[in-house]
Amino acid sequence: MSTEDLQKAFQLSAELLQNQSYHDLTQNLISFLRSIEGVDEVSAYEIFSATPAAGTGGENQRDTLVRRFPLISNDDFDNQNADVLRKLVAESQGGVGYWVGSVAPVIYYDVAGAMEPRRIVLIKGAVSAHDFEVIRGLFGVYSNQVALLDARERDPLTRLLNRDSMDRVLEQVVDFYHLKQPEKETQSSWLALLDIDHASFSHDDDGEETLLHVSALLKKGFRSSDLLFRFDGEEFVVIVNQTDKDGVETSLERFRKDVASHPFPAGKINVSIGFTRVDPDYSAPLLIESADQALYQAKTGASNAIVYNDALRHKQSPMDDVECY
């Protein structure tokens, strides 16, 4: 590696320490890794372990849930790294190294440990020994920053992104649609607020267990391109991307039924849901208010219901145009 490249690596280490979000941190790391001579592809993933299904008989039997970074709109992508990921999740103890179980060697970053989600970065290509040492050195900086940013961005119980992260991400989604107006409704994003009905247990053991089960159902029930947050108390937020109104209704209704049929430790649980379309002509706080008013309508009705607030689209007062399901 040349002196110039070495200086770039030191500069990147300093820049990684300055990143204020996991998204920016990982995006900058990927950009640098792709610039290294011999690197053909860089892919990053978040790995979640879901709550054991009823009747599995133990903590060791868990579903592995994978989210690709950066988030992609096409959920049916052909993931050629699936076999490598499965083996790394099962066999790797974390760290950085070569994986030689595939057709071509893969360099991996595996940020494993007590925290969730687990992060794995796969680097395909043939790099020099010097470049590999630089890649190895950056892993320590990256993994330490992931831990620090997780403490800031994620809810400590459910490991979902927290309220502060939701505010920032929603603003980014609104800004995206300011720059690129969707040509058709199937390219829209939707903001949904979900609340556990009649919850009065959030601070005891049963309450925490229920929140963990709900968060696991969220991770399993939505696509890798959708964004999940713990909003406040028993409330959660989902930003459903790249679909139309029928698509988001189908996803939310499926989740509502999954919750209603799930064997929670505290007994039967239901959720109410309010949602609205992400309209770039309105600020993030107004979109949250619109979805929250729809949620209020759902909870003051029969509960265990889904309500769509279309008021912003027609520029009416927030509850002038509400549809109930």
From TrEMBL:
Name under which the protein is recorded: diguanylate cyclase
Annotated GGDEF domain residues: 187-311
GO molecular function: diguanylate cyclase activity
EC number: 2.7.7.65
One GO process term, biological-process aspect: negative regulation of bacterial-type flagellum-dependent cell motility
CDD domains: GGDEF
Pfam families according to UniProt: GGDEF (PF00990)
Organism: Hahella chejuensis (strain KCTC 2396)
Reaction catalyzed: 2 GTP = 3',3'-c-di-GMP + 2 diphosphate
Leading EC class: transferase
Signal peptide start and end residues: none
